[in-house]
Amino acid sequence: MTKTKSPFSQEFVNKIKTQLLEEKEKLEKELNKFTKKNPDVAGDFDTTFPDYGDKDDENAAEVADYIANKPLEESLEKTLRDINKTLERVDKGEYGICKYCGKPIEEKRLEIRPASSACIECKKTITQEI
Q1: How large is the angle between the packed helices 56-92 and 10-34, nearest 10 degrees?
Q2: Conformational region of residue 94, where left means phi above 0, alpha means psi within -120 to 50, and beta covers everything else
Q3: What distance in Å separates the CA atoms of residue 96 and residue 115, rounded to the nearest whole number?
Q4: Residue 1: what pLDDT?
Q5: I need a surface site. Which of 12, 95, 119, 129 has the fewest CB within 10 A?
Q6: What is residue 113's DSSP assignment?
Q7: What is the pLDDT of residues 36-93, one digit of tens each?
């Protein structure tokens, strides 16, 4: 399938890019609160094990916080990956094109979820298959 160029105005794309960059910064700040970047894998973060002390209740709190932070790390990483992929599409001039059917994604959908990579019809089809 040939890549279609973005059908949206440069003004709209710039607005979306600004939103994506702001969201990326927020996600990275949030991840930096309880993770460290994995130096061996781009875009990967590792939840750090907190160190509150050596008492039993402190050890229990460390384990509880680590267990709570791990799924949060995975969720934030996934969102950050989506944003980075979207920024790549913006830079290539391919933003707003459905990755499945190659048709333009509805502008309202992109305003609500700027990192969308699928049109509503394709997304419905995919989620019904799962």
Answers
A1: 160
A2: alpha
A3: 9
A4: 45
A5: 129
A6: -
A7: 888 888 778 888 888 888 888 988 998 998 998 899 999 999 999 999 999 999 999 9
Contact call for residues 101 and 122 (beta carbons, < 8 A): yes
Contact 97, 103 (CB under 8 A): yes
- Secondary structure of residue 35 in the 3-state scheme: strand
Q: Which domain holds residue 85?
A: 10-93
Q: Supply the pTM of this predicted model.
A: 0.81
Note whether residue 105 is domain-resident: no
DSSP symbol at 36:
E
Burial class (CB in 10 A: 0-12, 13-18, 19+), 38: exposed
Residues forming beta bridges with residue 97, ordered by sequence position: 104
Q: Average pLDDT over the chain, rounded to whole?
A: 90
User: Do the domain assignments include residue 23?
Assistant: yes
H or E segment and range at residue 47: strand 45-47
